[in-house]
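User: Here's a chain of 254 residues. Predict its fold as tokens.
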Amino acid sequence: MFAAACTTQSGPAKQHNNEWISLFNGKNLDNWTVKIHHHEVGENFAQTFRVKDKVIQVNYDGYGDFNEQYGHLYYNTPYSHYHVKLEYRFYGDLQKGAPSYTLRNSGLMFHSQDPKTMPKEQDWPISVEMQFLGGLSDGQPRPTGNMCSPGTDIVYKGKKLESHCLDSSSKTYDGDQWVKAELIVLGDSLITHIINGDTVLQYSEPTIGGGVANRYDPRIKIDGKKLKQGFIALQSEGQPVEFRNIYLKDLSKK
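Assistant: Prediction complete.
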């Protein structure tokens, strides 16, 4: 089954207050494109991404074994300077065969490569991720709004970060509660993560580089190239999750 095509939009995104636009119409996946590992761009395998009760739902009820079918749902317009906000919540159980680290784990990819440039067998897009983690109700801290970097590098506190992920200072959110996440991206300079109104992480200078992303087109992964803009995507890693109230304010003219 195929989601919206990459090349056209059905009309302008709905205006919100103070120049915010709604990226999700609450009805369907118009203006969004699916890319799932092991599948061609546009193939929404087993309706992984679907709309239910005015939310975008990630659901695996049509899967057998997960089989590393990591997926992403891309908004069709790239941006450079912007403020995006959404709400997410985890629900249900981890899909059979999904890695244990993906338990109550999802994310918002940004400055991503165009999904049309991803080969069928590429697992992760070259991008930066605002990682969402849910608490495990075990009393242990598990922050959300973290940073991960598939095929990219960032600078943190004046130095290139050597690790793939970087924890935020957020609280731990257990259960199936909705969590508000905001991301402010200023091209290839400052990036800010906000959770439930609190700034939890800042870093800068996203560039192409590093590992994790596999079987990409080498013409796309130009290490050292600054990431000034790219696509936004919602992640599917094996854990059911829902997204709603997705808004963006374009800051490029300010």
